[in-house]
Amino acid sequence: MDYSFQKIEPKWQAKWEEEGIFHAEDFSEKPKFYGLVEFPYPSGAGMHVGHIKAYSSIEVLSRKRRMQGYNVLFPIGFDAFGLPTENYAIKTNTHPREITDKNIAKFSEQLKRVGFSFDWTRVIDTSRDDYYKWTQWIFLKLFEKGLVFRNKTLVNYCPSCKVVLSNEDSQGGKCDICHSDVIQLPKDVWYLKITKYADKLLLGLDEVDYPENIKQQQVNWIGKSTGAFVDFQLKDLDEKLEIYTTRCDTLFGVTFMVIAPEHPLIDKFSSKIKNMDAVLVYREEASRKTEFERTQLVKDKTGVRIEGITAVNPVSGKEIPIFISDYVMMGYGTGAIMAVPAHDQRDYEFAKRFGAEIIPVIEGGDLEKEAYSGDGVMINSDFLNGMTNKKDSIARMLEFLAEKGIGHAGVQFKMKDWAFNRQRYWGEPIPLIHCPNCGVVAVPYEELPLRLPDMDNFKPGEDGQSPLAKVESFVNCTCPKCGGAAKRETDTMPQWAGSSWYFLRYCDPHNSEKFADREKINYWMPVDWYNGGMEHVTRHLIYSRFWHHFLYDLGEVNTPEPYKKRSAQGMILGADGEKMSKSKGNVVDPLDIVSQYGADTLRVYVLFMGDYGSAAPWNDSSVKGCRRFLERVFALQDIVAPETVKSLEASLHKTIKKVSADIEEQKYNTAIAALMTFLNEVGKEKKIGREQLLCFVKLLNPFAPHIAEEIYQNQGGEGSLQLASWPEHDEAKTVDESIEIGVQVNGKLRATVTIPTDCEKSEALALAKADEKVQAALEGKNLVKEIYVPNKIVNLVVK
User: What number of CA atoms fall less than 13 Å from residue 410's CA on the CB side?
Assistant: First the structure.
């Protein structure tokens, strides 16, 4: 038979869709499985092979679960708001809605051609008002509970995209969208108090099945530390500088303080600062640096000593100088730090640069060369002298601070509150109103959705204003509290808003009264298995867990954590081993592979190319190898026997066991390798039983469903293969009926013989001695000893 994928694949895709094979059923009596993939951003470039690999993991699991009798929810949607579409819209003078709809249609067609078993009746689009109505609803609930606030601060600003970025969106000092350098800009910003949920986000990691590296990245990003808040009195002033430290045991070694150039103390006491001109010049220089540049450990230490104001070390009583330096940020901690140059390398380098005193308080190291960061005996520390245990020293100092009323134990987080606004058009309008009488007022729930107004000119303003500020009919409104004239908020939400709860909407995507019916949430949630990219584990994954924890606290969802299990795929590299990019010319279009070799070949290859969690380069010859494998599978129909081929039974049951286990462990490459090994066994026998072939295509189905369904139907399988029962192995049948063992004479291998598995010693010896090569080695010799290790070896000792 000829393998014509061009006919087979469209036929079965249409048939499955017509019969609704992949539609999830609410409240089915079957056990449920909710498999989730990170929904795509519908870019104009369309789907790439990375999407195929990302979605293939849950695709394979979903097809297997259906065959195991589960009611499977495997949905798809589109994260459709965002800067790339808007930038392209501005460039081409096309409305973002038109571009988004076109891109979604393109993505949908591509996904269907690859044969993913998504439930297309549950598709969501975050840029549609029936969806973002509920994004706004959740935002207003956050606002009600005091988790939304506005603050003027230095923000990460991309001058190219003309947008404020969160820390997560500007890692390394680069814009996550256009990769331009980010600058610092003072601006009024809306924040979500994600830090209020820091402890819950950390504790929740104990309740989920995430890979350790993903958990660790989240732990590091949240960055919880325990320490002390300590007050440093400013000399001769009614003012204190509060600092946070994890090493309060080193307070006697504090010889200077450093505050951020933006610290409000500078303006408050400007009349007392004798070198205010130099301070202001330095502040201006610091404002032109990105946060990334300011906080780098390896850089020249710069700063200015404030003349006219000093602090007092609260435990030693010594007067110490205050510096400003750009490595201290107002957004981190209190905007002021204590410096212990003897035991912190950055403080040490700063002290050397500016001539500050260096007082050791822990014995050890060579302070002529560098700071000593190890443990040791406490010295120069009054009541701590002689103590050797850091934990005890910290505890004793905390007691002292509390007794004197100059400090207390506390907790700090590295994670900052979430900057939650964009000065762009293509995003969810923030449903808040600015009233001169009532302050900031929420848009009433019954007025949701607050729709994005239609605009022709949606270019961002040069002054950092949102394009919406130009639409008077949108901006001007009535205060819902006092009825007076008011102004709408014109910033929009960041793209992460819509993706922070989309998994809930899949449970009930067409509900106009609620974001999802509670009974449906109870049935489907939590997500059983979620697969996504490693690049999102400190952004989307934390954000969505935060929103879900908040909704759980409101009583709106049934579990504190949204995802039971999370996994991640490795990147597909170009054939040159480099990351795929258009500029390098190494991008592979998945539909080119589908057109040339078929969707099943593409599906098998992306999972066979290597370990699922590791990066692997594209290899055209391996693609062709997967195509030849499927051609050989299709040709099995030419050698089907009506009866079971007994010699294949052990191999088949080993394959069932291996493939079943490997899918659960995401060892897809070795599962496919096991299928190939069985195919080779069939090749040796030159025949396969009909029931054995049906069993084999069941195992193949999650990987290559089109060819598997075609063979299944050709061989008279009952119903659709997609709902046929998953094979179960019989452990007894995984044992071969016969095995080959070596026969040694005086320890030297003379022959190999085939014997029944677990046969008696007498039978094994008889079969060994019957071999011609063994007989020749025994001729003329006296047999003095016979050794048999069951199923392994026979050794005959002769003289």
Answer: 17
